[in-house]
Design a protein that fits this description.
The structure holds two protein chains of two kinds. By secondary structure, chain A is mainly alpha-helical. Chain A has 15 helices and four strands. Among the domains of chain A are: 148 residues, no CATH class; 78 residues, Winged helix-like DNA-binding domain superfamily/Winged helix DNA-binding domain (Arc Repressor Mutant, subunit A). In chain A, helix 1 runs parallel beside helix 15. The longest helix of chain B has 24 residues. In chain B, helix 1 crosses helix 3. Chain B folds into two domains: 131 residues; 68 residues. Chain B contains nine helices and six strands. Chain B is globular, with a radius of gyration of 17 Å. The model of chain B has no long low-confidence stretch (mean pLDDT 92). By secondary structure, chain B is α/β, with parallel strands linked by helices. In chain B, strands 1, 2, 3, 4, 5 and 6 form a six-stranded mixed sheet that branches. Classes of the chains: A mainly alpha, B alpha/beta.
Chain lengths: 341, 208
């Protein structure tokens, strides 16, 4: 390998944290550095990835909590749960703990109730880690919302300085639509309709994580508004927006929406991070490590394909033995770079 | 045509072979599999014990052995071993069945028919990590197996291997007697006589 696993882990973590900061900052989290400007941010997959990766950046983790207290009403808890389950995100205990916290802070505790009761770790462990992988020391006093789920951390002091998400700009479009229309599937549907000339309901379902029936029913109703048009082709129905009607909202600068299928891609990135930090994979001889990276790439590949990035992982069967490690590292570096742009 | 390889070929084979078995050991460890002691015959054993070198792509398991030294039937091979070997095959671009129990498969296989007396004591062991050791069969056991297979298959590469091992008359006669315990039929005896005549051991035909 041209770089060590330690160096690779460090690169992956830096890129992932930069991506998370970039997206949360675009939604109003006070931060620094570049901010997502062009792509619509999907808050549920973003939170699911953050709950795993931001364990290595306690400041980001708590800034997200602060933001959630102010903006959590605009998250779709049902979708959060569905995406976590469908893609098997590994942040189950953190999600339960954050839901319990938000249930306590929210004017609508029932909304978070189902998630907060969902999961606890059997064996308690520290919530936060330093970038070198060592646990961050835990003070004697613990945050009860987290310790109840097996995650040990100090008391939470929310600074209360998170602003509401921005009322303009492409990154916050989905949240803005939810503010306008309510937290329901139609907001994602409008984003997808704004991103494509026309689109099949099953494609929307695939890209958003909603059930196909939910999408079909919603589109059928939306078509009665005259704003959404439907065309039959080969016994399939294709939906599109009536040109011009919603452009000030969906295409403020005349540029079509850039919708990314974030959920499968973010699960692949979570898999990557958990894969390279897996204690079993540390201090391995190069050949066995290459074998493990090959396994990891084969797990990530279908998810990246769903996210439209399947071709960015080279066919591992072309690279035997140790040779594959460098190929995988190169591929992942490009993927992280493109996600972070 | 058999091609005898050069010293470089042999070194390269030994390195690849070592790499595959060390990776197999690592895969077994990662899977939490038990330790395996494999008793191996065939081309790999010929090369590993420095008897002769010829091209081979597989590791032929004739038996398994527990840590107390008792031989175990290798058919079927333990699933954890098959799974780990499958991953190694993918990683290194090897045939799917590179690690196989071919010589001892089924009722007619060598293990169930009975292995030569003293085979266990003659094994030459090599360890590839905490989860994998391989006992390569000794030259005399190779002669037993090769004669049996050469007669069974009417020559072939087993006959070539046998000739390259340069067995003495006594060794061949011992091997013939062992082979007949596996197949005491008149047909096999005729096959044995045919082999000895065809491959330059005619003077032994009357001594079987």
């Amino acid at each position: 390998m041209n770089i060590s696993l330690v160096e690779f882990k460090s690169l992956v973590l830096d890129r992932l944290l930069a991506l998370l900061w970039r997206q949360w900052s675009a939604l109003g989290v006070p931060g620094h550095g570049p901010v997502e400007e062009r792509r619509v941010i999907d808050p549920e997959p973003l939170l699911l990835l953050s709950l795993t990766v931001a364990r290595y950046d306690a400041r980001l983790f708590d800034e997200i909590l602060d933001w959630l207290v102010v903006n959590g009403a605009f998250l779709n808890v049902q979708r959060l749960k569905a995406l976590e389950k469908r893609f098997d995100f590994q942040c189950k205990a953190q999600l339960s703990a954050v839901s319990e916290l938000l249930g306590n802070k929210s004017s609508n505790p029932l909304k978070w109730g189902r998630l907060s009761a969902a999961y606890s770790l059997e064996k308690p462990e520290p919530l936060f880690f330093m970038k070198n992988g060592k646990p961050l020391p835990v003070p004697d006093e613990h945050a009860p919302e987290f310790s109840a789920h097996g995650l040990m951390r100090g008391p939470i002091t929310l600074r209360g300085h998170a602003p509401p998400f921005p009322a303009k700009g492409m990154p916050s479009l989905l949240l803005r639509l939810r503010a306008l229309l309510g937290v329901n599937a139609r907001c994602e549907l409008l984003c997808l309709l704004g991103a494509a000339r026309e689109i099949h309901p099953s494609e929307i379902a695939r890209q958003t994580g909603y059930f196909p029936r939910t999408v079909q029913n919603a589109l059928a109703e939306m078509a009665r508004s005259g704003v959404v048009r439907v065309r039959s082709s080969n016994r399939e129905k294709l939906y599109r927006l009536q040109p011009g009607v919603l452009d000030p909202l969906l295409k403020p600068e005349g540029i079509p929406i850039q919708w990314i299928s974030w959920a499968p891609g973010f699960r692949a990135l979570e898999m990557l991070w958990l894969g390279v930090t897996d204690p079993k994979r540390q201090d391995m001889e190069p050949l066995l490590l290459a074998s493990e990276l090959r396994r990891l790439s084969r797990e990530m590949r279908p998810l990246l394909a769903q996210a439209g990035r399947g071709s960015q992982l080279n066919d591992d069967s072309l690279y035997l033995g140790k040779e594959y490690a460098d190929i995988f590292i190169g591929d992942v570096t490009v993927i992280l770079q493109e996600y972070g742009q | 045509m058999r091609i005898m390889r050069t010293t470089n070929d042999k070194q390269s084979f030994l390195e690849s072979f070592e790499e595959a078995l060390r990776l197999l050991n690592g895969r077994l460890a990662l899977a939490g599999a038990p330790r395996f002691n494999l008793v191996v015959c065939g081309g790999t054993a010929l090369i590993a014990t420095n008897l002769l070198f010829r091209a081979t792509t597989d590791v032929d398991i004739v038996a398994l052995m527990d840590d107390d030294g008792a031989l175990l039937d290798p058919d079927p091979l333990p699933q954890s071993l098959v799974d780990a070997a499958g991953i190694v095959a993918v990683d290194l671009g090897m045939p799917k069945d590179w690690l196989n129990n071919g010589p001892s498969r089924g009722e007619g296989g060598l293990f169930r028919m009975g292995l030569p007396e003293g085979l266990t004591k003659r094994l030459i062991w090599k360890t590839f990590g905490d989860h994998l050791s391989i006992g390569f069969i000794d030259r005399i056991d190779q002669i037993y197996f090769k004669l049996y297979a050469a007669v069974d298959q009417r020559g072939g590469y087993h006959a070539d291997d046998l000739q390259l091992l340069k067995p003495t008359d006594e060794e061949l006669l011992e091997a013939a007697r062992w082979a007949r315990t596996h197949d005491p039929s008149e047909g096999y005896l005729q096959g044995l006589e045919w082999f000895l005549r065809e491959f330059g051991y005619e003077h032994l035909v009357g001594r079987i």
